[in-house]
Amino acid sequence: MNIPGGTPNLKLLWLNQDAGIQARRLDALLGCFDLSSSREELQAVENPFKALCCLLTYLFVQVDTLCLEDLHAFIAQALCLQGKPTVQLVDLQLDYIDARAVQLGSLLVRGLTTLVLVNSACGFPWRMSDFMPWNVFDGKLFHQKYLQSEKGCTVEALVEQNRSRLTKFHALKSVVCKACVRENRRIVSRQHWHSPQPGRWGRQGSGSHRTSSGYSRAGQGQHWRDQGPGNRQYEPDHWRRYSSSGWSN
Length: 249
Known about the structure:
Elements: H1 10-15, H2 21-32, H3 39-44, H4 49-62, H5 68-81, H6 86-90, H7 99-121, H8 133-136, H9 139-150, H10 155-158, H11 163-182, H12 223-226, H13 237-243
Helix pairs in contact: 4-5, 4-7, 4-11, 5-9, 5-11
């Protein structure tokens, strides 16, 4: 991993109480996701959105088939979730169920689970509450925002005409997009896709990157990520295999 000062051992991360150890812990966490270059921007993000931006950046760098509409839906639902009454979420009605939206939601929650594990292994540089799904994700609300984004709704509509949310939306989007650009990943609208690898520029140097085979940029399988809809090997037939049992309840 590319970590300033080298990769620390677990004894240092877990037991050391010296001044500055918390910074080393954060360096280790960001190094696990290859996001060391975005440290300052991520640190400036308010809670509980640091973890979300970290995860979204990693996913969008790794998964070529995630697009701008997906990013808008993820950020909008996280912002709209704040302060929304539970009863309002329960009563939320969807026009229809989209299979890809369900899988994207599952992908994000699996990613948050991985972040919890990494945060723990690194000695808790960030608060655990920031990684709890109920603080940044609601499946039904995300589904609504996903459908709206796919229909071409404006950002203002996605954040429900709330100016404060709109400001935060653009700030969070900027953090994710800038971090992705550093990794030669340009997030574009699905309408602009004209190649098998949308938004991906050619990488220079010795660094590897994720390919259509579903492997990470380091060449190692990431099962919690690769099984989602961003993997081009994902087949629609899988839905028929699970539809009769997994969703009937």
